Amino acid sequence: MASDRPTHPIGRPVVHHDVVCPFCGLGCDDLTVEEEPPSTLAVRSTDCPVARERFSHTPVAEPPRVAGVPVPLAEAVEAAAALLGAAQAPLVAGLGTDVDGARAALSLAERLGAVVDHALSDGLYRNLAVLQRTGWIATTLAELRNRCDLLLVAGPDPAALHPRLFERWVAPAPAFQTPPSREVVFLCGEPLDTTRAVLSGLPVTVLPGDPARTGDAAAALAAALADPSRAAGAAGIGAGDIAALAERLRTARYAVVAWGAAAFAGPHADLTVERLVGLVRDANRHTRCAGLPLAGHDNIVGVNQVCTWRFGVPLRTSLAGGTPRHDPHRFDWARYAAVADVVVWVSSFRPEVPAFPADTTVVALAPPGTAFADEPAVFIPVGTPGIDHPAHVFRSDTVVALRGRGLIDRGLPGVAAVLKAIAAALPQEAPAC
Ligand code: SF4
C-alpha cells in the first residue's frame, strides 16, 4: 500500500501541514509539524504547551519486555494472553487510544468478562452523572464560534486543560451575529495571562469569586434571572454583580455557559455541574442559552462513544456474566483496581502508567520510554495515534470525529493490532458438551 508520509529531502526537515492534534479534544487541525529524521517532531505553528510537549515526545522504539526482559513482540503477546486467560477479575482500563484501539480493547474485555474504564473518567462522570439525572441543553464548538454573543466561563479557566480554546473558538468574530459581537464573563475563576492576551480585543468581565463555590454562584444567578429583586451575593461575588450578570444573560441573543468539570475540586463536583445545567435551563425561559461541557483528553469522549454504541451503556461497565452492567461507582477503575487480579492498562497518548497494588499482574501498552513505579509483567511499547499511525479521535463536543495522519515510522505497533493479537492468542474455551 502506498504511504501518505512525505519522503525526506536530503539534509532538510520534512514539514507536515494541517496536522490534526489528537491530545486534548479541541480538535485543532491546523498544526505545522517539522520532522527531523529519524523521528524527532517539533510543532512550529502554535505555542500550545500540550501539543508542543506531546508531539516532541518521540523516543526511538524499544522492544517489549516480559518480567523486565526484552523479548520479541510475538513472545510478549503470548505471555499477555496466558496471563489474561487465567484472570479471574480482569480490568481493561486506561484506554488512552484511538477509535480502532477502543474497539479492540472492548472486544478483548468482552471476551475476558472484564471491567472497562478510562483513566480520566472522573471528569467525564461529573458531567455524565448530571446528564443521566436531569438531561441538559448542550451546544458544539462550532455554535460557540459562530453564534454565541455572551460566553460565561464558569470555574477555573478551561484553557489550562484546553490551551487554544479561546484562540480557536472565541476570539474570531461570530459569523451569524449581526453585527458581530461577543462578550466573555469569567465567573468564579480568573483567566490565565495567555487567555487575557488572546481575548484582548473583546469585552471581558472577571468576577473571580471562590472557584470551589461555582455552583453557589450559578444558583444565585438562576434566582436573579427568575426574579431580579431576589439577586443576592454568592461565592464572594456581590449582589450587584450577580444582578448585572443576570440582566446581561437575559438580554443575550445566544449565551453559552462553558465549564471544564475536570478542574472542579471536591468530591461532589457533579453538583456544581448540576447547578450550571440548571442555570442554562432557566436562562432558556428568557433567551437562547446552551451549556458547553469541556472534556476530551486522551480521546476519552471517543472511547466513551465506542463503549456506548457497542454495549448501550457508557464506560465504568463490567462485561462479566454475558450482560453489560454499568455502575459508575463500583466500576470506577481506581476502585476496581483494588480487587482486580490482572490489569490491561492502555496509555498510547502519554508515557504514564499508575502504580497498582503489589499483587496485581499488569499488562501495559504505552509509548516507549514510559517509566513504571513497578516493572509490569508485560510491557508492549505502542505508537501514538496521529503520530505513528492514522487514527480517529473525537472532539470534546462529541459530534465530530477527526482523522489524524501518521507522521513518522518508528516501527511501533498500534494498540488495536496488539490487542487483536492478544485476543487471538487467548486459550480457546472448551466447547460445551
Ligand atoms: S489546544 Fe488541544 S487540540 Fe489544540 S493544539 Fe493544543 S493540545 Fe492540541
UniProtKB/TrEMBL annotation:
SUPFAM superfamilies: Formate dehydrogenase/DMSO reductase, domains 1-3. This is Formylmethanofuran dehydrogenase subunit B.
